[in-house]
Amino acid sequence: MRVAVVGASGYAGLELVRIVLRHPELELVAVTSEKRAGVAVGEAFPALRGLLELDFEPADASALAGRIDVAFTALPHGASAALVAELYKAGVSVLDIGADFRLRNRETFTQWYGEHQAPELFGRAIYGLPEVYGEELKTARLVAAPGCYPTCVLLPALPFIREGWVERSGIQVTAISGVSGAGRTLDDGFLYAELEGNARAYKVAAHRHIPEIEQELSLAAGEDVAITFVPHLIPASRGMLATIALRALPGSDALDPDAAHGLLSRVYADAPFVRVLPIGESPSIQSVRGSNFCDVAVATDPHNNTLLVLSAIDNLVKGAGGQAVQCLNWMRGWPETTGLLEAPLLP
Length: 347
What we know:
There is one protein chain. The chain is of the alpha/beta class. It folds into 2 domains: 2-124, Rossmann fold, CATH 3.40.50.720; 149-315, Dihydrodipicolinate Reductase, domain 2, CATH 3.30.360. It is 30% helix and 20% strand. The strands form 2 sheets. It has a 7-stranded parallel beta sheet, with helices on both faces. A 7-stranded mixed beta sheet has the order 9-10-8-11-14-13-12. The longest helix is centred in the last third of the chain and has 16 residues, at 317-332. The model has no long low-confidence stretch (mean pLDDT 97).
């Protein structure tokens, strides 16, 4: 199957290139980058020298459409919608790892991102969390892959929200992320001298992933769910870890460690990329780095009537490129793990 990666010179785009190259069913025939158009991939990124004999080209839907079956779009929010619409109309299946098609409410999207650039497609994408929407993905032509923070929060929290074990308000989420989550952004805060040995909270209770997380939790609950979300930046290139504090409802088993662990184990028994850790273990970034795994765990705090769920992912793989490829595997009826069973990088 012929594939293009649009926005292939960004961190998430490069991760997609790396995964597509090892996928046995995919042929990478085009990579785009506005800044590097005309430059050989191996020249711009020596790590790919000898692995891919392509030059970067501009993202032109008319030039791409006749050459590809599938497009992965890895562009900043607001930059992909119009291009995605053109590719979609030309019969190309599109998996967007940006934010343009994740939200279902138009007003919410406008509040957080501004006017949508392809209103005719708004609300038509399948939300690309395979562990939840796998069956819908089988017939999808447009997929909105979740954000990295939403993936890290939703996978451990959704089962308890869905089962009604915890309150739907007062949910506290604390998360940390490596700097690649910000993309190739030129900002003083991302300089080595500013980041090394440092850690800081940012966009406190104001991150654009909040409505996406609340959307999916609310759908699972059947009523509005609200969270307080505090993300932190750490001096690492990749990786993400989240801790979610959920208040137990009276009469539920949320404060029974065995029951909470059992629920996660049952829900994800057939999910090859969600690893439920033994009671007493906590997820770590190093254990998932470079892989498509999401490690999840539970702990309880009876003193505060609180269930704690934790998770770790690689923000560029399960939080971006790997998850998009996992969605494509569902769409095409291939084994879910095809091209994705890469062991985490150690050390």
